[in-house]
Amino acid sequence: MATLRIPDVVPSPVEDCERLKNAFQGLGTDEKAIIRILGRRNAGQRKKIRETYQQLYNKSLIDCLISELSGDFRKAVILWTYDPAERDARLANEALKSRKKSIIQLQVIVEIACASSPHHLVAVRQAYCSLFHSSLEEDIIANVSPPVQKILVSLVSSYRYDKAVVDDDIANEEAAILHKAIEAKKLDDDEVVRVLSTRNKFQLIQTFLCYKNNYGKSIDQEIVACGKGILESVLKVVVWCIDSPEKHFAEVIKTAVVGLGTDEDSLTRAIVCRAEIDLMSVRAEYFNTYKSSMDNAIIDDTSGDYKNFLMTLLGANI
Amino acid sequence: MATLRIPDVVPSPVEDCERLKNAFQGLGTDEKAIIRILGRRNAGQRKKIRETYQQLYNKSLIDCLISELSGDFRKAVILWTYDPAERDARLANEALKSRKKSIIQLQVIVEIACASSPHHLVAVRQAYCSLFHSSLEEDIIANVSPPVQKILVSLVSSYRYDKAVVDDDIANEEAAILHKAIEAKKLDDDEVVRVLSTRNKFQLIQTFLCYKNNYGKSIDQEIVACGKGILESVLKVVVWCIDSPEKHFAEVIKTAVVGLGTDEDSLTRAIVCRAEIDLMSVRAEYFNTYKSSMDNAIIDDTSGDYKNFLMTLLGANI
């Protein structure tokens, strides 16, 4: 369930644009107004606002936000204002072009490939081609080394059947295939890649269940036990994003806020990308796993407009 | 260039539907009217006719055609009347479910993956999921053996960048990768699959050109020289469908009409699928390669309404 709260009576796109325009004018920027408007509109409403703003003022709303805002607040508002497919294409590109390629970056690709609908994934691939003059797959190949490269290319190329059709025989059979590969520590085996990148989500959840029932341990534990390399980390995220995305995103948020510093990019991504999807379940999962409040952890680690914006996406009345 | 001819003044969908309805009524069916109407409308117009027919008579136009027509004529008219993405999803499914899996069947998948636009390929995958309750990739895996399986799954999963962005260094580099694999007769090498399934069409055409310039022989000849197996045949079709689809479809038509019998399924598919795309170029390529007229070959090998329908799609005034 989503955390995003939309007012009972939503102003027209023209009204929203006029208020945004006002918020940009004068000496200071009225950040609170921006949060109040954009932070309480769904993707369809934000699209209409972007289009209306362009028509009314012959200017891109995104460009105005870029010039008016700054820091983590700016990044969060802009990601939220983009069309979700364009947002994810940009996040993927940023991850691939970053000098570091640890799990922090590579998990962004896995989230798009495994924790989105097949339809959204295709839209991201289309947006990627339009924005960056090469395909997402080509950029993965150019920027990620094998064997992770092969896995990511196959995952982003998937177009899974999206209804709950499950075959128990296949689940048992493919649990055995996965178990054999994990036992042999051949995590990049063609068959593993095939199973994870072609089967529908419901079928894979059943396969993971069979794995646990037939071999005594959960597949993510067994993958992690294979080693501490990037391949193991990526495959663990694949399993979580398919099996229970809320578990994955709870962990992303926890990792972002834990310790002294904060990883604002990961925190922003998790909140912005899931506020309209399952952030309520992420919150519940966070509480169950870490025995503490996710919202409080975010409040403690952020401040100012950035904090207010994230809290608004989390449903708070700022 | 297309061969399909649309009249200067196109009747409204309602008029077309009324005439189709009349053609179905009475003792016999008026096949000529059906050919005259459907055989002279483009995909968008046929879509409107399908929708209008359903609204006017609360019946599916496709179902009426199934019950009114017969034989190869029926098959051709129905394939032509489907939405192109649904048509190709059905063709792919028929090919995968057929008992024989020679190049005659498997090339259908290659055509969809390599001789269509990225957008159309995605639409076919979506239609496939809707119609057959599994993904195209899953059905390839269930019905085609390795190593061809791996190649087909990667090709249908592609979403190539669709503009003419070409990098000469990459072309030379990847021509060398392909040459090394062909020399070693490792046609299903991961790198071969990667290059063929992720690079844009224009880049691949340049890579094939580099191959010829750098190694003296064209890549399709070298692939064929590797052996007479299904893997070599499939890869040759991949190269042709990317490099010059008109060459491939000219060969499909020639093979369909050559000798005593006719392969009506392949002939129908080539004409129906390319009439709106490049059938004019296929005709020219046929003439250049076989020094004879494609249209005459088809006239000699077909008869009756089936012949008239194919000729109409080829632009003739029947």
From TrEMBL, chains A, B:
It comes from the Eukaryota. SUPFAM superfamilies: Annexin. Keywords: Annexin, Calcium, Calcium/phospholipid-binding, Metal-binding, Repeat. One of its GO terms (cellular component) is cytoplasm. One of its GO terms (molecular function) is phosphatidylserine binding. Signal peptide: none annotated. SMART domains: ANX. One of its GO terms (biological process) is response to water deprivation. This is Annexin D3. It comes from Sesamum alatum. The lineage of its organism: Eukaryota, Viridiplantae, Streptophyta, Embryophyta, Tracheophyta.
